[in-house]
Amino acid sequence: MLSPRGRTPVVRSARGPCFSGSFQISYGFVYLPDNKGDSMYLSIIGSSGCGKTTLFHAFTGTAGGDRGSTSSVAVVEVPDERLDKLSRIFNPRKTVYGRIEVCDMLSIKEGDMKNEAVPAKQLQQMRASDAFILVLKNFERDLPSDPVNDFHTMLSEFIISDMVQIESRLERIKKQMGKKENTPLEQERIILERCLGHLEQGLPLSSLTLSEGDEKNLRGFQFLSLKPLMVVINCAEDVTGSGETVIAEARHKLGDTTPIIAACASLEAELAGMEPDDRAAFMEEYGVAQSLRGRLISLAYQTLGLISFLTVGEDECRAWPIRNGVCAQEAAGVIHTDLSEKFIRAETVAYDDFISHGDMAACKKAGVWRLEGKQYVVNDGDIMSIRAGN
């Protein structure tokens, strides 16, 4: 479960009616993600009245409630049919799915970053996020909607936040350098000034071409406009059947680089609270092919470039999300730092091969079981056991 650092939260816990596993929804403290290898941290953002809190409850399966002036967090387990099947074979003491930690942030409006209206704690939470889910209002209620304008407003707020952060750091670098030469600080100054010039053109850092070294050097700043952004266009119920049209119109105006889906958050929240049979009938009636939760999980994995490798045994069967392209030694470090530092080999077999042959002994006999070294690039669905020294 969640482990807030050094704070005593007010916590409400429950089991969601359509949730695979338990969740915890927490209110009233600054939450920082666990940063464990089996989870990612997503922040839901948007303007007031866009429906982001409703979408949060639809995504997480939590019940709605008055959260006052604080953000709320819940954990979603990532379904994996491969892990389900392996658990039936190994009958482990526990099965552990990948996790998505989801935070519903307070609303942000134009001028909030410039006027420092966003609480420092929320800004800290946003910077700790792996990616953002931006909810855009596309229904008429009380006030007319303008999703394109809302998109650019949020992007502008990110840009302003990053500019303030860079200007502050450059000022400190200037004081630190004085008249003495300091190569690392000079290199930092150069890349930050390049970033600042890009931001001053009204462009997010995600559109700036950066070398691998520059990306590594900037990682610690956790710039908002550099983070992956997914968009959910929140539509009225009567628009659910024409979601592709809504998405096409949005892509025409926002460009092809931002992942976009369309959904009715209120309808999806209602679906999340139903029993499976009732939900299936309801989805068919409204033309909903896949639940919002399923679509958001898939979108997050695609946006962040994630795959999963698997570990199996009588004690535990587990899915470990990693970045696509990670080598075996790095993947071992997701399980435990010692496994990476003392890595020797990775016993590896593809999931499909294991299912085809039935067990490890048969896989070895068929020659599909392998010993891989440090630089082996892990594939989605690889079943791995790490050999490490003492």
Radius of gyration equals 23 Å
Strands of the biggest beta sheet: in what spatial order?
A: 1-2-4-6-3-7-8-9
- Whole-Å distance between the termini? 30 Å
Strand content: 15-25%
Summarize the topology.
Elements: E1 10-14, E2 23-27, E3 39-46, H1 52-60, E4 72-77, H2 81-90, E5 94-96, E6 99-104, H3 120-127, E7 131-138, H4 147-177, H5 183-200, H6 212-218, E8 229-235, H7 243-254, E9 260-263, H8 265-272, H9 276-286, H10 292-304, E10 306-311, E11 316-323, H11 328-335, H12 337-341, E12 343-350, H13 351-357, H14 360-366, E13 370-372, E14 382-388
Parallel strand pairs: 3-6, 3-7, 5-11, 7-8, 8-9
Antiparallel strand pairs: 1-2, 2-4, 4-6, 10-11, 12-13, 12-14
Helix pairs in contact: 1-8, 4-5
